[in-house]
Amino acid sequence: MLKKVLLSTDVTLACVQHALSTEKEEIMGLLIGEVHNNGSVVSIVSSVILRRLDKKPDRVEISEEQLVQATLKAEELAAELGRPLRVVGWYHSHPHITVWPSHVDLATQFMYQRMDPSFVGIIFAVFLTEQSTKAPSVQITCFQSINEGSSQTRKEIEMEIINNNDSLMANNFEILTQLPVILKEEEDEAYNNEVGLTESEDIINKQHNDAVRTIAIGHIVEKMSRPMLEALVARNALNGVRLRALKKRHQELMAKMENMSCNV
């Protein structure tokens, strides 16, 4: 029986950024990791951001093709790292609503658990406001489904966010930087679908559709690309400070070892 989930900080960052990309519809993705201790612990080390098949405010869907693509990605990482990685769960967002899974979420989760008892679901509730401070907050829950007659109920799973696995850091940052590209592809698809439905549209409709697409792409740049770039620049600067401190410490230790050798 699954008891605990270990979620890496890089995956948490990617999922939260994905969840904050829109406050009108839910987003989703799949989680890659490995199962330990006869299924009692799931360690999540990477994620796969999925394009939405249909933009809905209250539900998400994962196609068989997307699941196959995520499985292939897990196999690639497994071969690269020599670890038994596979798809171990899914995540999605709840913008402006409670973090608890809906009956649709529970049914979806139960369906996956029938194929894999250790499969987990994680929900990121975003664009919430703390009543006491009026500050925005993000809530996270990890769950499985328990079948009770003709319906399912929620079972909370203990979750711990752990430090990054260095061997997967580059992969997880690549996933994070893919997010704006995926969001733009969604907007391009929506635009092309709308244009295809109204090929004989007049110039007013065309200008309207063009303006909507431009605003959407501007939103991606303002809310995702620019903050992400600023965060990566800041992190790079911090890593530079840490590197200089480590080099200085290394020089001090080498000097100390030389003095000890001389004294001997």
Characterization of this structure:
The chain is an alpha/beta fold and 264 residues long. The chain folds into two domains: 4-162, 3-Layer(aba) Sandwich (Cytidine Deaminase, domain 2); 166-262, no CATH class. It is 51% helix and 25% strand. It has five helices and eight strands, in the order E-H-E-E-H-E-H-E-E-E-E-H-H. An eight-stranded mixed β-sheet has the order 7-6-5-4-2-3-1-8. Strand 4, helix 3 (103-115) and strand 5 form a beta-alpha-beta unit.
Number of helices: 5
**Percent of residues in helical segments?**
40-55%
Helix and strand string, N-terminal first?
EHEEHEHEEEEHH
Mass-distribution shape: globular
Number of domains: 2
What is the average per-residue confidence, as pLDDT, rounded to a whole number? 83
> Would you identify the CATH architecture of the largest domain?
3-Layer(aba) Sandwich
Biggest sheet, strands in spatial order? 7-6-5-4-2-3-1-8
Give the N-to-C terminal Cα separation: 58 Å
Q: How much strand? A: 25-35%
Instruction: Name the poorly predicted regions.
Output: none
What Rg do the Cα atoms give?
22 Å
Overall strand count: 8
CATH superfamily of the largest domain: Cytidine Deaminase, domain 2
CATH class of the largest domain: Alpha Beta
Please outline the major beta sheet: 8 strands, mixed
The third-level CATH topology of the largest domain is Cytidine Deaminase, domain 2
The secondary-structure class comes to alpha/beta
